[in-house]
């Protein structure tokens, strides 16, 4: 049986657009937090994973995952941007069959969508879920793209890699693949059950 790809959960951002003293990933969402909810879907997928985080968020992550599944960045490293976080997470699991990149602030991405992207990587170098024609997360990358992924820097994320290689869109009935929480208004919409996307995921 082919090894499942590793999910790289991005939870090292500063969340500066959200404002307030409590980080957006630690905001209550039902009986859990935003990050807890995202991790519940990751755990249910059955895929191996690594959570890229910081010391500030580490205690929250440890409520659900083991220390071996954490990569804790310094604040200086985290400030280098999402590209650097992706590169670090991929480099932490160099022998994986592929990687799915999932921001920690996307708690409404379903387990089924995660699994669909993981399955597609057995035949595609890049795969992503699509809802009504819009690209969402997680974005999956095959093992052959390891050199490209570990070279990422800054805040651009993996857009250039997605544009450079053939990418396979998987149509899903899951608006959650588009919904990230950047602001208090985003969080209010998610709490109210609205899954209107605030922006196109990177």
Overview of the structural elements:
30% of the residues lie in helices and 21% in strands. It contains 8 helices and 10 strands. The strands form 2 sheets. Strands 1, 4, 5, 6, 7, 8, 9 and 10 form an 8-stranded mixed beta sheet that branches. The chain is globular and about 40 Å long. The protein starts with 5 loop residues before the first strand and ends in an 11-residue tail after the last helix. The C terminus is likely disordered.
Give the tags:
202 residues; alpha/beta; eight-stranded mixed sheet; two-stranded antiparallel ribbon; 8 helices; 10 strands; 21% strand; disordered C terminus
Number of domains: 1
Q: Order of SSEs, N→C?
A: EEEHEHEHHEHEEEHHEH
Provide the CATH top-level class: Alpha Beta
Helix content: 25-40%
Number of strands: 10
Apparent shape = globular
- Sheet having the most strands: 8 strands, mixed
Q: Under CATH, the topology is which?
A: Spore Coat Polysaccharide Biosynthesis Protein SpsA, Chain A
**Separation, N- and C-terminal Cα atoms:** 31 Å
> Strand share of the residues?
15-25%
**From the helix content, strand content and strand pairing, which structural class follows?**
alpha/beta
Number of helices: 8
CATH superfamily membership: Spore Coat Polysaccharide Biosynthesis Protein SpsA, Chain A
- The overall pLDDT average reads 91
- The assigned CATH architecture is Alpha-Beta Complex
Radius of gyration: 15 Å
What ranges have pLDDT less than 50 throughout 5 or more consecutive residues?
198-202
